[in-house]
Amino acid sequence: MHRSLRLGLLAAAVGIAALVLAACGGSSSSSGSTGVADGSDSRIPAGAPLVDQDKLKFIPETLRVKVGETVYFKNSETALHTVNIDGKNVSGNMKKNDVFTWVFQEPGSYKITCDYHPQMKATITVDPS
Fold it and tell me: Which SS3 state, helix, strand or coil, does residue 11 take?
């Protein structure tokens, strides 16, 4: 009897721990680390290329898109960010929940940085359409 009670309590504890980890482990990012929007932000279509600014990082750090495809950048944290493409600030200041879009017109590899946080770096590779 005592063994089954211990197993039941252990199973309950494991279940509660799993729920707590699931609730706390999620990112505020709409894309996780995939670079693809999941549709949770109505301003960003599901399946669209997305670079999230969260935890003082660009997430993902590498993204591949096609010429003419709209890339969405979202600031998911309270820190002020910018989107610089090859050293040029194209977004202005982005506050929490701001969304900025950019359409790459030429194939190539583009370096993405932030004026305020030099450790934030990403690369977007643009393939011909």
Answer: helix
